[in-house]
Fold each of these.
Amino acid sequence: MTQVQPTQKVYGAWQQIPVTPSRQMTVDAQQMAAHWRRCSLSSDFWAQYMSLFIPTRVTEEYLGRGEVEQVLAYLLNELFENCAKFSNGSHQLVRYVAWSQDDSMLFQVTNHILPEGQAPFAKLIDEMLNNDPHELYFQRLEENVELDLDGSGLGYLTLIKDFGVQFSFRFRPQENGSTAVDVQAKVSLQQE
Ligand SMILES: Nc1ncnc2c1ncn2[C@@H]1O[C@H](COP(=O)(O)OP(=O)(O)OP(=O)(O)O)[C@@H](O)[C@H]1O
Ligand SMILES: [Mg+2]
């Protein structure tokens, strides 16, 4: 864990980059939850949009355009669904930002929670970033069967395990009594 500003907490390899205005979107979390298909519509749109950065022909070390689009659609759907499911309190804005980098793409999705939600989420993040994702995945799978839980808790783990997505997280307490949760996801464009 790295301390950025006195009140902010960062987990994982956070990247501080200026926002490119043409690659961002804001939506309302409640409206996404009320019309669930908006999650997949938004993720499919941005997956296609970003995959156009990939040339039609790539060398064999790199993922092709279609492969990139598939990974991004899966990843962004997971991130938008989490915002729709877990946003809490009066501040319901969700912000999406994306960057195209040399050998990777970086996405940042922000939603807001009540301050008391930070500690349990941070505990889960710590566990996820500091353990073997494969072991954790199967452990969680067994727990789900035993406990019959609602949320499977496998979203991030599946993306780490199957697609090598690198996550980092930031919590920013706001003056309006909510805490902003920023999730960054880095997708490598090289074959594993
Ligand atoms: N954007 C978010 N804001 C607040 N809490 C979150 C957010 N994303 C995840 N969480 C917390 O982290 C947990 C793990 O998230 P993850 O996406 O891995 O699983 P899930 O959404 O519960 O289940 P699944 O994705 O398998 O349907 C969630 O159950 C929730 O408690
Ligand atoms: Mg999820």
Amino acid sequence: MHNLRPLFISIILLFSLASPVLAQDRPNIVLIMADDMNQYGFLRSDKQVKTPNLDAFREKAITFHQAYCPAPACSPSRTAFLSGLSPHKTGKYYNGSKAWETDIMKEQETMLEWFQRAGYTTYGYGKLFHSDISKDRVARNFPNGTGKAGFGPFPDEEHRTFGSDSRFRGIQAFPDEDFPDVQNANTIIDLLKQDQEKPFFLMYGLWRPHSPYTCPQRFLDMYDVNDIEIPPGYLKNDIDDMPPIPKAYIESKGQQGEFNEIVSSEQKWKEYLKGYFASYSFADYNIGRVLEALESSQFAKNTIIIVTSDNGFHMGEKDRFDKNSLWEQSAITPMVIYMPSSIQPGKVCTAPVNLLDLYPTFVDFGANGINPHKPIDGRSIRPLLEDPNTNWKHPSITYFGKNWVSIRSEKYRYITYPDGGEELYDHTRDPWELNNLAGLKKYKKVKSQLKKHVPGQMLEAIPGRWTKMINGIVTGVAETE
Ligand SMILES: [Ca+2]
Ligand SMILES: [Ca+2]
């Protein structure tokens, strides 16, 4: 009798191999996340950045013109949307503070952990969580490894165009194979040629266009410095109509030094733009390679594809070459979503959405009755994917500290600061947020409507380098008032 056992096991195995066919009713999901990619390649009518692959992709996808990050920097943005928790509930507002060791985060089920429990295989290559998270947790989220990690290559000291600050390591060319973005795309292209037993969630985290602005030479050759224009959103003395806290922040030593150096000559500014644009086009190239591999794969008909970034970036507007601000340039992220069954290709959606909305959207599409262990923030944007013109009354919220919050409705951006200082911009007339309307009586009602979305309770920021710096600025302003 006992020699029937292997046969019995074989039958069981046969059935378990057959079941993934059912699982494939649910879509695969590919999330492509660039780093510090602002909207220059997307929104501007005088688009200077060349993105042929993203342009072609947008023809068959839905482009969200008002997508924002939960917090305007790599680590807090990724921590929020991958954990499903808004920064005001975790205290993770800035880079350089450890969020993942807190009790709330230890207990939180990440997007990847939920995907696994819902029957998906999770893959991730490149820059994913950023730092501040343990290797064990990363390995749990991406059991197949995370590909080529790291941040290089860095140019030698003498090639640094803008001094030794790590954010401004100079513009220089290297061969394709030196770049993690190329290596990880290669890995993904190979992976997409293989069969999958289960539906999969695949994340491709690029480093570019984040500095240093190094890329293969042909991307630098795409741009002539003489053809590059200074950003139209730059206005000298733009900060004059701001309240004391943002003014003090922009004028603080750490924020100002780089700005003065880059804008010291128009040539230098344009060279900086060229470096960023070339890195942007390099990211577009790598994204295009992965999109092409997907399109020619067996998964083309059943895969949702999202292209986005963790945050935006200022190119001199508001006296900044950085993210880490609540203004449009820094808070906005590209977001293009391809639905294989969509009847809305090439459409634009102007409803304000947030990276935090991705996790609940994925749950909406892939849950199969399995919901995250604990409540998650954000809301499913499935209705907008099915009809981009859906009436959407929800603003998008971005945080830069306790009581340092921006509420972005379709029409307005409202910002409030810890001392009660306010900004209000009307995007129908002022897309560059140059004219602060917060002090005008006629906007009192608009402000109070937007202010209702500011949470009553916000956690203190987790200690860290940025927390210390921001607290110093707030205290400094209070002392002079
Ligand atoms: Ca970033
Ligand atoms: Ca202004």
Amino acid sequence: MGRYSEMSGFYDVIMTSGYYDYPKIVDGLINGHPVANVLELGCGTGLIIEELAKRRPQTAITGVDLTPEMLAIAQDRLSPFANVKLFQQNVCELDLHAQHDLVFSYGGVWYFVVQKGHEPFMVSHIADHEDNLKGLEKLAACIAPGGRLMLGTQGPHFNYERPISNGMVYSQVIEPTEIGFTKHYFLDDGARRVMSQTIHYRTYTFAQACDMLKPWGIEFDGLAHHHDEGGMFMGFSKS
Ligand SMILES: C[S@@+](CC[C@H](N)C(=O)[O-])C[C@H]1O[C@@H](n2cnc3c(N)ncnc32)[C@H](O)[C@@H]1O
């Protein structure tokens, strides 16, 4: 179910060594628009929320994540921000009793892989199909009528290894599976392997993803930004 327990202690150093560009993610997310209340699904260690909270101190921001170790780091990081609330929850059983004008996920529970010349496809951290349906229903219930859903985009995944800022070497290995792919994440300190984590991802075609969101009044609104053109999110509106 996409737990990041093994990776949590190294997550920030890997991500801030060039894996994600957090200021650019937040530029793509708010894009100059006013937002009163925002929910991030799969907020991890809170790196996006921190950037957002600094820029928008008046916006009520909620973060949800499944992995307690990730959320503990987010709690520490975000304790200076009175406008941020965090909850440890699985999106498949999401229970917030609140609606938001913007719900988003970046590299979190659901995201899109976008590559020029190819149909985008959706990647889910949730391997079971029924759980995906439950999660998307819960997600929809958290969006106010007229509100938006933004799901992050990433370029195609591939195997590589590269040094990170603390001198360790990060590597990833991707294996196709019947339901999508499996990704192995590793961190090595010289000859010593300090982190090893495997996540089983399920993938959906763009049409399947739209069909799963449609019953809840959520439709792709054409505001897609191609990842390789610098866009960071696919946008959906809720009627
Ligand atoms: C790659 S991290 C992204 C974190 C953050 N959005 C960022 O950009 O740094 C994915 C996060 O999704 C969370 N996640 C995966 N499945 C989840 C689920 N079913 N419910 C809630 N969170 C989930 C994981 O615990 C992990 O922290």
Amino acid sequence: MAIPTRPSMPTSITGLNWLTTDDGSRTLHDQRLNESYHSGCGALAESWLVYVLNSGVAERLRGGQATRVLEYGLGTGTSFLLTAALAEMHGVDLLYVGIENNLLPAEVVADLELLHAIKNFHADQLWRERFQDVRFQRSLSLLQEGWVSVLQQACGSLSSTELVQVAPHTRLVLLQQDACTLDTSLLRTVLDFEPLGGIHAVYFDPFSPEVNPNLWQPRVLQNAYSWLEPGGSFTSYCVKSSVRKDLERIGYLVRRVPGPTGGKRQVLLARKPSSPDSQAT
Ligand SMILES: C[S@@+](CC[C@H](N)C(=O)[O-])C[C@H]1O[C@@H](n2cnc3c(N)ncnc32)[C@H](O)[C@@H]1O
């Protein structure tokens, strides 16, 4: 099937363009890698379903449970903003750790227009109700400003780590590092002060294994596993068989679940067992 041509717009970075995806939200397309930051079928729908919902994070926040998320590939911040808007709306504390080795300039991210996409989202009734909630929209608007200002002030150098209070309930640990050779000392320090320690959900969203094989090495997947609480989730858009086998070898309970309407047929939901003898369901 031919790939549809989608509206695109240049950014201030040569070879990096905004693409309007099929649900009206924007993603970036990197011409050099020939990779997009999200599925062209819907950046918003993908981020919401694959990460915020499938990971169980939306349910935790709705239930008032303080939550810690670790994202590999912070990119435009779409998954971060959606997760944080839920946390703010429910008044629940969120610690969000984002690993990124190529932080986008603030002036590029200022054109993400996620709130605009949320307001005009019409693909799914259930999500639309949440997206139309004024408290959600208000939180998102504040967070968007906060996120752009984090990028404006971020130290530009690789290997830096920062802890920023982005909104009343949202702390962001920004690890500007190569995820393959991660220095986790700041993360360790922060988590040591948390009542329970580990991470509840890993959003694994680097570029594809074809373009970015280093990030999909068992060593990196194992690292993510070691940060997870028992029962914690590991979600990704990628269901490649070799990746699923590596995850199973590490000890994850791996499932394929339906992807967003119009997008990938299946996406990945893996869990760290809650007890040593847990079985996949
Ligand atoms: C698919 S995009 C992530 C999209 C992002 N989740 C969002 O909502 O916009 C992949 C991201 O992974 C980052 N990345 C790629 N290789 C990396 C590495 N070795 N270490 C850290 N980040 C990496 C890229 O710079 C890019 O921002």
